[in-house]
Design goal:
It is built from four helices and seven strands. The chain has 173 residues and is of the alpha+beta class. It binds zinc ion (ZN) (2 copies).
C-alpha cells in the first residue's frame, strides 16, 4: 500500500487494513492486521498505529518451527529523503524521535509495517518460555524425552565433566 504524502488531508488519515508483508523471500507473505493514523505537517508525516501479525520462526534452542504472535504499537515520523544533506541536516541530528524517510512524495506503508515487525522479532526466539532445547551431546530434542547422556550426568563420577560441559554451554550462548 503506497500513499502520496501530498494527498494526506489536513485532518489526517485513518485506516484499518490487512497487508501482505514479505519478511523473507523464502516464505510466502504474512498477513498483517494494521491500524494506522497519518498526520501531515508540511512535508513531515507522523505515523502512529499498531500491527498484529503471526510469523513463523525457528526456536533458538530446539530449532523447531514455531509461530510467534507479534502485537506492536508504534509512532514514527517520516521526512522526505530529498531533504537530507541540505540545510535541515543539523536539525535532523538534533532530533530524538524515531525518524524514517520517504521519497518522491510516496510513503510505502508495507515498508513502514515491515520495519516495525523486524524491530519486534526477538534475537533469540523461543517456542515456549521453558524450552529445554537440544542435548549438546546427542542432539535429541529434550522437550520430547530425556536422553541417555543426561542420565549419565547424574553419575557422581561424571559430575566434574558435567560441570565442565555446562560451562562450555554457557560460554557458547
Ligand atoms: Zn524450542
Ligand atoms: Zn543426549
Amino acid at each position: 500500500m503506497k500513499l502520496n504524502v501530498s494527498s494526506i488531508p489536513e485532518e489526517g488519515l485513518q485506516q484499518e487494513v490487512e497487508l501482505p508483508i514479505i519478511i523473507n523471500n523464502k516464505t510466502k507473505p504474512y498477513i498483517a492486521h494494521v491500524f494506522i493514523k497519518l498526520f501531515r505537517y508540511g512535508r513531515r508525516v507522523l505515523v502512529e498505529g499498531s500491527v498484529k501479525i503471526s510469523v513463523q520462526l525457528k526456536c533458538s534452542r530446539c530449532l523447531r518451527e514455531t509461530a510467534l504472535p507479534i502485537d506492536v504499537a508504534f509512532r514514527e515520523e517520516y521526512i522526505p529523503a530529498e531533504d537530507i544533506g541540505g540545510e535541515n541536516e543539523q536539525e535532523l541530528t538534533d532530533r530524538e524521535l524515531d525518524l524514517g524517510f520517504y521519497s518522491n512524495d510516496e510513503l510505502d506503508i508495507n515498508e513502514v509495517v515491515k520495519e516495525q515487525i523486524l524491530l519486534s522479532v526477538p534475537m533469540k526466539p523461543l517456542c515456549r518460555e521453558m524450552c529445554r532445547g537440544l542435548c549438546p551431546v546427542c542432539g535429541k530434542d529434550l522437550n520430547e524425552d530425556a536422553c541417555n547422556c543426561r542420565e549419565g550426568q547424574t553419575d557422581p563420577r561424571l559430575a566434574p565433566l558435567a560441570k565442565f560441559k555446562e560451562i562450555l554451554k554457557v560460554r557458547k550462548e
